[in-house]
């Protein structure tokens, strides 16, 4: 008996989407290769489903029949070895999903990088110079807008994002620009202004995720790809910054050797233009080498996860043994928050880079230790920050921002620990932990947006 055709199974489509996102990040496998593998997988699932298996059973068997992804990667790399260097050096002719505009690659990147470098200097045409007081205030408010908008436009261009997504992005960036520039801050060093300037890049970055996910902005798999992109972009940007620092030093030294003073050119042109152009270049590098060589971020994550786990366990043990609490100086609290954010970044990237179908292993247990010890540190930081509110200053903008950020981190870490623990006990799939990370992204966006948009009026622009 032939069953009536039905529509796509949402659960199956989500599983295939997650599998596709994982495969796309393996070396030597291009977008067309992933399409071919997906066709094989869908064919196998259809055959098994018609034989009476449930879609989830058919999917698992279908993936198993495709074989080990590493072996597939090696096979593709052997068959397409010439393509590896093209993709590595020039960005290739095939990028990630939706990134297939004709003539893209390094030339497109170069255009947007030049636009980014020019954008940061446009205010100088209107008399706003970086070395002036007015310029310092302007760039404090607008530097992130000028630096990130070209990168978001670059990602949107590559993915052919539709008019509705473009409209949302323009509205978000426009609203952010209006808010940060129109608020009547009490002084140019007001706490709410500094907080808004620090949180605005995060708001813009999360909003820029719409350009990265494109038409698939509703799928968790694409947002998980965005988290991977974020981790790799950060590493590339740091490497470019280190190289740029070396280039700057050599530039100054060589021109000084011939009696030419470039000490004005470097801070006024080389550093700002290079830093903003590098935002686009780092994004292009992540895209260009995607699926060609083993990504660097997972390797670094494997190295630093055990080191940070040891550090946090030693810290919590020292607090318990000595009975000493965290000192309440602002700089120290900021330091602990930075450590927690780094730990969260390690956890996020480890989750995003892990094979969701692999069995629990030693590294998963190590991650649970890291998360639990980070939770303990977060609680200690929360107690210390809350303790500061008992003095005569009460709830200042900085303290409320610190409390809120630690509560937001606590929520993510706590539920991540629960989901990872149940996964290690074989009581829930790893995909639940993945989905939790992407589900939590709006929480970060809402909190950082609140600090930018609501804190200034709430605290009387002080």
User: What are the secondary-structure elements, in order, as H or E?
Assistant: HHHHHHHHHHHHHHHHHH
Mind describing the biggest β-sheet? none
**Total helical elements:** 18
Amino- and carboxy-terminal Cα gap = 74 Å
Low-confidence stretches: 1-5, 76-100
Count of DSSP strands: 0
Radius of gyration: 24 Å
Outline type = globular
Q: What share of residues are in beta strands?
A: under 5%
Structural class: mainly alpha
* Overall pLDDT score: 81
Helix content: over 70%
Question: Any chance you could write out the topology, listing elements then pairs?
Answer:
Elements: H1 10-23, H2 31-50, H3 55-66, H4 69-79, H5 81-90, H6 106-119, H7 122-125, H8 133-159, H9 163-182, H10 191-213, H11 220-257, H12 265-288, H13 296-322, H14 330-353, H15 362-388, H16 397-424, H17 430-453, H18 455-458
Helix pairs in contact: 1-11, 2-3, 4-5, 6-8, 6-12, 8-9, 8-10, 8-12, 9-10, 10-17, 11-12, 11-14, 11-17, 13-14, 13-15, 14-15, 14-16, 15-16, 16-17
Q: What descriptive keywords fit this protein?
A:
462 residues, mainly alpha
Describe the protein's architecture and organization.
This protein is mainly alpha-helical. Helix content is 76%, strand content 0%. The protein has 18 helices and no strands. It has helices at 10-23, 31-50, 55-66, 69-79, 81-90, 106-119, 122-125, 133-159, 163-182, 191-213, 220-257, 265-288, 296-322, 330-353, 362-388, 397-424, 430-453, 455-458. Helix 11 packs antiparallel against helix 12. The longest helix is centred in the middle third of the chain and has 38 residues, at 220-257. It starts with 9 loop residues before the first helix and ends with a helix. Mean pLDDT is 81; it is low at 1-5 and 76-100. Keywords: Membrane, Transmembrane, Transmembrane helix. It comes from Longispora fulva. The chain crosses the membrane at residues 106-126, 138-157, 164-186, 192-213, 234-257, 269-286, 307-326, 332-353, 365-387, 407-426, 438-459. This is DUF4153 domain-containing protein.
């Amino acid at each position: 008996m032939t069953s009536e055709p039905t529509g796509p199974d949402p659960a199956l489509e989500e599983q295939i989407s997650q599998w596709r996102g994982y495969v796309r990040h393996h070396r030597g496998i291009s977008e067309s290769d992933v399409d071919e593998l997906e066709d094989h997988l869908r064919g196998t699932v259809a055959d098994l489903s018609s034989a009476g298996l449930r879609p989830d059973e058919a999917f698992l068997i279908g993936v198993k029949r495709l074989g080990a992804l590493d072996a597939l990667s090696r096979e593709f790399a052997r068959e397409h070895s010439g393509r590896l260097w093209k993709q590595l050096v020039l960005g290739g002719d095939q990028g990630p999903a939706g990134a297939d505009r004709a003539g893209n690659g390094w030339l497109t990147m170069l255009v947007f990088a030049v636009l980014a470098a020019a954008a940061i200097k446009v205010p100088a045409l209107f008399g706003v110079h970086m070395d002036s007081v007015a310029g310092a205030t302007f760039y404090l408010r607008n530097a992130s807008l000028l630096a990130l908008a070209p990168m978001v436009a670059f990602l949107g261009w590559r993915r052919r994002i539709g008019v509705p997504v473009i409209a949302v992005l323009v509205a978000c960036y426009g609203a952010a620009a209006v808010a940060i520039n129109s608020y009547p801050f009490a002084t140019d060093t007001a706490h709410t202004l500094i907080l808004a300037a620090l949180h605005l890049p995060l708001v813009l970055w999360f909003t820029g995720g719409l350009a990265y996910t494109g038409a698939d902005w509703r799928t968790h798999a694409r947002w998980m790809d965005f988290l991977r992109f974020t981790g790799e972009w950060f590493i590339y940007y740091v490497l470019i910054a280190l190289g740029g620092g070396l280039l700057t030093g050599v530039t100054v030294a060589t021109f000084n050797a011939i009696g030419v003073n470039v000490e004005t050119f470097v801070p006024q042109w080389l550093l700002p233009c290079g830093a903003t152009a590098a935002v686009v270049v780092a994004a292009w590098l992540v895209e260009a080498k995607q699926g060609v060589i083993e990504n660097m971020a997972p390797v670094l994550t494997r190295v630093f996860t055990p080191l940070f786990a040891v550090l946090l366990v030693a810290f919590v043990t020292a607090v318990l043994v000595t009975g000493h609490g965290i000192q309440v100086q602002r700089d120290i609290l900021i330091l602990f928050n930075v450590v927690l954010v780094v730990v969260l970044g390690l956890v996020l990237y480890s989750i995003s880079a892990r094979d969701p179908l692999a069995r629990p292993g030693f590294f998963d247990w190590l991650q649970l230790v890291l998360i639990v010890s980070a939770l303990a540190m977060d609680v200690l930081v929360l107690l210390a920050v809350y303790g500061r509110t008992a003095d005569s200053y009460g709830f200042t903008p900085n303290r409320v921002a610190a409390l809120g950020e630690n509560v937001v981190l606590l929520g993510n870490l706590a539920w991540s620990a629960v989901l990872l623990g149940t996964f290690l006990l074989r009581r829930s799939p790893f995909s639940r932990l993945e989905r939790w990370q992407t589900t939590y992204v709006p929480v970060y966006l809402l909190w950082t947006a609140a600090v930018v948009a609501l804190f200034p009026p709430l605290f009387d622009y002080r």
